[in-house]
Structure to design on (296 residues):
């Protein structure tokens, strides 16, 4: 009978040859060793495939999957969640790093606290050379018993979405909407996960997020963001209304949430209030959606 690893570490990658070896090395160096690594290559055109095949040949815990075409960041993430066999899931972006004890410490928390759905280490921002830029406070230690309180705090505090590279319960991420194929859908997924359980922040700085010109955080245009999240739909079409997508995503997340009906109704009222606060952006996007396209 084959052994089922406790943790699946999923690495989504597209043209990641510059930093991918260092990322995989930081995973292989984890003190917690009962894991599998699944690399989902989004049809890279550089040396990514050769790097992945080399690591897979060297370590039987590493599995390499290559998409025939670039399906976008959202679908690639969802594919990793589908392929995961572990009780716990850790996202590991192909340009970031983590210290050796990160997974072990997160697993210990999840094992000891069934009410916790996601555990993460504090974040250090680094540059392309690995030099420290700053220590970043995610401020999402959400150990509040009520889901509604966690949800409201997440919406208020969320900034850089580093917490998704902690360790989470695979069953919870599968029950969620995962990532939507629209701009910054991770800002929708994180609050939704708070409806499934508590967030636990480790006191140590164990995660390193690399800020560099090729990172998704460096994309500066709406069209570029759309191509990143959903290249299959972006060709020849108007960019989707991100503000509408976010609010509708919050509604769907609340409706899916395993919370009592009364609390769910209160959460939907909150989402309506947030939408009213964003009414200017919603109206602007609505005008853009109904306006005729410039075909020049």
């Amino acid at each position: 009978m084959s052994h089922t690893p406790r943790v699946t570490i999923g690495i989504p990658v597209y043209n990641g040859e510059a930093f991918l070896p260092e990322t995989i090395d930081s995973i292989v160096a984890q003190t917690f060793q009962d894991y599998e690594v699944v690399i989902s290559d989004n049809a890279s055109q550089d040396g990514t495939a050769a790097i992945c095949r080399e690591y897979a040949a060297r370590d039987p815990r590493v599995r390499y999957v290559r998409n025939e075409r670039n399906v976008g960041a959202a679908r690639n993430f969802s594919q990793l969640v589908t392929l995961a066999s572990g009780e716990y899931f850790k996202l590991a972006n192909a340009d970031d790093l983590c210290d050796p004890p990160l997974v072990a410490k997160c697993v210990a928390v999840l094992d000891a606290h069934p009410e916790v759905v996601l555990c993460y280490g504090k974040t250090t921002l680094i540059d392309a050379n690995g030099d420290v830029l700053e220590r970043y406070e995610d401020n999402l230690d959400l150990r509040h018993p009520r889901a509604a309180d966690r949800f409201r705090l997440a919406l208020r505090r969320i900034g850089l979405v580093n917490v998704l590279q902690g360790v989470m319960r695979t069953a919870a991420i599968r029950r969620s909407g995962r990532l939507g194929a629209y701009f910054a859908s991770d800002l929708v997924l994180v609050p939704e996960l708070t409806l499934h359980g508590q967030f636990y922040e480790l006191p140590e700085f164990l995660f390193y997020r690399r800020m560099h010109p090729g990172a998704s955080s460096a994309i500066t245009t709406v069209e570029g963001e759309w191509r990143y999240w959903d290249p299959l739909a972006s060709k020849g079409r108007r960019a989707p209304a991100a503000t509408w997508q976010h609010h509708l995503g919050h509604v769907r997340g609340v409706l899916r949430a395993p919370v009592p009906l009364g609390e769910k109704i209160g959460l939907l009222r909150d989402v309506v209030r947030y939408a009213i606060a964003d009414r200017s952006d919603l109206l602007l996007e609505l005008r853009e959606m109904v306006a005729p396209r410039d075909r020049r």
Notes: The CA atoms of residues 8 and 84 lie 6 Å apart. DSSP finds twelve helices and nine strands in the chain. The mean pLDDT is 93.
